[in-house]
Amino acid sequence: MNELRIDHRERDDEGGGVPRWVWVVLATVVVLALLGGGAWWFLGGRPLAVKTAAATAPRAGGGAGAILQATGYITARRQATVSTQLTGTLTEVLIEEGDRVEKGQVLARLENGAVRATLNLARANLASTQAQVAQAQAQLTQAAADARRQDELSASGMTTKQGAEQARTALASATAMLEARRRESDAARAQVAQAQVNFDYTTVRAPFAGVITVKAAQVGEIVSPLSAGGGFTRTGVGTIVDMSSLEVDVDVSEAYIGQVKPGMPVEAVLDAYPDWRVPAHVIAIVPSADRGKATVKVRVGFEQKDARMVPDMGVRVSFLSAKPAAGADGAPRPAPKGVLVPPQALAQRDGGTVVFVVADGRVQQRSVKPAAGDIGGQKLLPDAVKAGERVVVSPPDSLKDGAAVRADDAE
After folding, report:
1. Distance (Å, rounded) from C-alpha 195 to C-alpha 201?
2. Distances (CA, A) of 126 to 134, 189, 228, 330
3. Is a pLDDT exceeding 50 seen at residue 118?
4. Residue 172 phi/psi, 5° resolution?
5. Which of 379, 350, 352, 389 is nearest to 367 (CA)?
6. What is the pLDDT confidence band of residue 410, given thresholds at 50, 70 and 90?
7. Is the N or the C terminus of the chain less surrounded, counting Cβ atoms within 10 Å?
């Protein structure tokens, strides 16, 4: 019986706790759950890399694709800093920035006391010489009459030949004196003209019609056509710009200058007015290159002028392959409503056409109805998408509304 007895250390505990194998199973389940969650986060929760493109507003006219784009600045072909011909003190300045002036309009006046006195003296000298001319003319008339009478008397033998010769000599002398007085009068008249020019120089006038952009001097300041040391003498009264001569100077890379031709159509967009597209054209290609920037300057002329255009304003220009189409009245056709997107941005979901718009790191699925026909190889979406929004290009079949994405391009 003793051999059949089981030692208490070898007996199984009954009701004394959870079996060890249960803990092993629970630990295995927890580890598998953690691994599954990590795999889901790494594979499914990570943002999907996609390529995007910006939706753009169509141009007015349509059908004219840009083959090259560049930037430049508005410049004025006629611009002048108006100065004086004489050194003097300003007594009047009749301009302010923004004033529109006409050709010949008075802009400023200098102190003119000295030149006025010189002009009056020249005029007095002219009057004196003119009086001397009149006196010499009278003497010549008298000498001519005396010579005629002496000739008649000499012919009749009533006087000597010497008297007739003396009369003729007096006539020649009077003739020479009259000519001298006339030359003196001409010199005096020239002095008057010179004094008048100097007097007119005290009045500064506009050389052409335009707009005042800079007022450079004030009443009481000394202005001079030449620069003087010390910084107390102005060299100009103001700057005038002919707004009708505005154009764009564009620097085009040497690698693409071959695509630009004189007369080709251009579309200009001012940085200050990004929604305003101005028709333009290439005036000329300046035959000189900048070796530092490896660019060639191109002159672009506006086909319409506007008060919003001002010198030195930044401009983005697009060189077009063809002139935008015009309507029956000759004006460019208005831009169609909507935005343009690449054809690859369209996808089929649940029997309809959709696009995926990226916003705040996630995609929004939007139903669209593309317009018939393409514009420049792109699809026109009349609604649902706004200009500037980015759409996913070639969206994968697995992409769903609200999915997290990461734009994997720099377009």
Report:
1. 10
2. 12, 6, 36, 64
3. yes
4. -65, -40
5. 352
6. very low
7. N
Query: Tokens for 246?
Result: 């505005």
* pTM attached to this predicted model: 0.57
Distance CA 18, CA 15 (A): 8
Question: Two tokens at 153?
Answer: 């008397």
51-60, 68-77, 142-151, 378-387: least confident range: 51-60
Which residue shows structure tokens 């200058």?
Answer: 257
Q: Which residues neighbour 250 within 8 Å (Cβ) at sequence distance 6 or greater?
A: 70, 71, 72, 297, 298, 299, 300, 315, 317
Cβ atoms of 91 and 106 within 8 Å: the answer is no
* Residue whose structure tokens are 């611009």: 79
Largest CA distance in the chain: 212
